[in-house]
Sequence to fold (1049 residues):
Amino acid sequence: MIPAAFEYVRVSTVDEAVAALAEHGEDAKILAGGHSLLPIMKLRLAVPSVLIDISGVQELSYVRVDGDEVAIGAGTRHHELEKSEVAQAEVPLLPHVASRVGDPQVRHKGTLGGTVAHCDPASDLPTALLALGATVVVQGPSGRRSIPITEFFLGFFETAMEEGELIVELRVPRTGAGGWGYEKFTRRENDWPIVAAAAVHLPDGSVGVALANMGGVVLKASAVEAALAEGRSIEDAAELAAEGTSPSSDMHADAEYRSHLARLLTKRALKVASGETGASTAESTAA
Amino acid sequence: MSILGTRVVRTEDPLFLTRGAVYTDDLTDPRLAGALHATFVRSTVAHGTVTEVDASAAREAPGVVAVYTAEDLGDLQPVPPPLPFLDAGFARPWLVPVGGRVHFVGDLVAVVLTEERYQGEDAAEMVVVDIDPLPAVVGTAAAATDETVLFPEVGTNKVAAFGEPAPEDFFADCEVVVTRAIVNQRVAAAPLETRAASAAWGEDGRVTIWCTNQGAQQAQGQIAGWLGLDPKLVHLVTPDVGGGFGAKIGADQEYAFVAWLAQQAGRPVRWAESRSENMTGMLQGRAQDQVITIGGDRDGTVKAYSLVVNQDCGAYPRIGTVLPTLTMLMAAAVYDIPKVHAQATCYATNGTSIGAYRGAGRPEATAAAERAMDLFAAEIGMDPADVRRKNFIAPFTEPFTTSSGATYDSGDYAAALDRVLEAAGYAELRAEQARRRERGDVRQLGIGVSAYVEITGADSGHGTSENAELEVHPDGTATVLTGTSPHGQGHATTWAMLASEQLGIPVEKITVLHGDTDRIPDGGGTMGSRSLQQGGAAVHQAAVELVEVARKRAAELLEANPDDLEVDLANAGLSVKGTPGTGITWAQLAADEQLIVQTTFTANAPTFPFGAHVAVVETDVESGKAVVTRLITVDDAGTIINPLLAEGQRHGGIAQGVGQALLEEILYDEDGNPQTSTFADYPFVSATELPSFELVEMATPTPMNPLGAKGIGEAGTIGSTPAVQSAVVDSVAHLGVRHIDMPATSMRVWRAVREAQKGSTN
Fold:
């Protein structure tokens, strides 16, 4: 439970971070909150030779309205997102989901950019960002570029980022008072979801739906979205939630049960989003 | 006013809750200056033949002082199995040699000594170990076939067998017979403090070993035996210990290894394991496959009950091998059943060794009996509380011997059940359940009832005796030396209360010491809920005897009749009766001559605490998730010395029992690879999964010790596990479900409902 030896570089600006990434190449990893990276380093599942610590980069920590969108700095901690009045007013799904990540320690250390870059299929916030149709802004040696989040998560712990790039910002539409629901199914309150479903009414009138832990990456429930666009009922649409997914079987749940949960949680999230029912409390409150 | 029975706040907690407590890995003892760090290289294969161990690269790694493989062990002999009746072929090597077999993931293959701890992990990775895999034996069913035998020289995986099969006509006179295979799953003890040991040899040829353990004296004897040392040469110290739950009973081989390594290296050596290492290396618990059969008449009378146990002992059989005999002894539980049959077979498997775990054999008996009662009740359509009441042993104050051979001291099981049902509002709960069922709610109510009796203070290798030494010092303070071994229980507070009660010396002036074999050569440690009824009783007895010594001494000094003197609480000493403040203080009495008493208390017999629990769950029948909403318990442990501490024991026990019922299970894949070796994968229960407990008081003093105290350390676990399991089953019983194995995960509940709806009764 001791990581292999590594070099440690602490930077204070994005430019410094990009320069450090260029200098150290593909063996370097960005360290932000560290709550995903450090455990796998302790288990020696990850053995980066250089850690570039961006936790002191002030310019990456913000939540602000920018035109039709809310722009969130990649270094924003989950706790900051949870408490952000801008986020609560403009895109309330996100602060709610942030409040459901791990435990207080994780929420005070973990960052939005970190959880997106880590690309764990069971992550809460990437699921919400996917439902929202977010844009991921990355910066590298040749400057900034924007990647639609639907094209960002490529595979198990694999993203569309090129070598030398880091995430600097996440942009999401201002959903305002539009309905949303997040149904997270766990064994214990602080656990990773066995399955989670996010549903949100978007400004263009469509409904975004995404699932956690139903495959190698967080997934759009495309069949559900399409059925809703066609005007089918929530019950009918939710029945399609497991279509196109490839859930794993592990000691917490097998694929069949995960598929069942995907349908059930999608139905519940959609009903909450449409104001038909209140949030499911069996999973969200302590007994 | 007596201090006993009052809520004295734990004097040890300020240290435990800050940085003040000193656990083994925190030691800064000068004897450990310059200590080397041991890092074990463990098998990553559950079963296989070692074909190569190459430590050459590791030996050249930075900071490496030495690497030991099986070739470097000199005349160190394998550790024999810890029970005399076990086949010597089950001996465990210190390091598995080339050509030898590894028997579980975590088996020791090599050990690295480094200057710094981090260097050890780097170097350990560089030791090349090749293992030719053999089929893994996972679970007792696979072990019983003997298709793959772990120890060819033994010839079978069967480790031990107890009891005979039931006669064929055992259930012949029963109108109804229900039988079911159930699982009491393998669980991790997971104490906060993982295993750790340090050792330093002195110039006098003695070794001091510090380790985290539940009984220094027992560990001292074992380690000396394994290393071929005179026990007098081994000074064993257990500093502050952060939990054990039974898994720190007896020494582990690593502890002795650290001492041997220190001797070889000529320098002190330290070892502290990681959590992942702990989750495969430390003794685990339960691991019984059971078949229960219960028979009786439709009026609710149970006439015959059979419990057949297959015990998974893990790779190298240890104390877990004999725990099924406790399960068998307690098979009849709280019931007056004319015929009770119990039988057990124990098997070696390619898993971590099984040891004692909070309750150790008794929870398995209660869980089986309570499942059987529920199944019988469901079969005849009777309320589970009524079935229990109909079959309870009638209230008794003289010893009662059950059909499974246990002699209980006293009990009133119906009274315990009535109290808990009343506190729970049982009738209203059933009414609410009926309403929800009628409405077809998504959230259904489940009510589980359990009644239990357990054995505490049984002979765990030290008879039913414990020692105490009590000394009053010239400054008016006192010291208690105890053979018990607190690891969270609060003996420093309670033992001081017991001495204070007799002497009048305030608790804060009484120091309690434990776990040092030089100062306390004999002691039974802390296990089996024995400490208060034996160790506490010994402190009480020492204090009573010390007052007598003091009375004689004071009589001479005061030129008074000893019979006229009494303890003077106001004056902290002795005074002539009726004239407080006129006598002599403890400090004066101890000024010129040592004032000390050493005593041994021996209980006549073990005690049998009992109780009843009600669990209420809400189950989301669409997802299968059950949430515990209420836990109401009666846990009768006799006279309570400190209610605060007794409640703490109940709280922890109840919570741990819920963990087994709903969440916890050590899992292996088909190759014997552990699937639950981190806390991300192994879900022990947390506060967010628990309601506030509703504790109902009941105290029936035992005559077996002068305190009237019975054990309370394990009772909560024994009662809550079956109550919660039963509640989950009950929440979906109207959908056709009769049984769900533990842990009753949401997937299992969902699947049980689905299968039942398909028409096959579950």
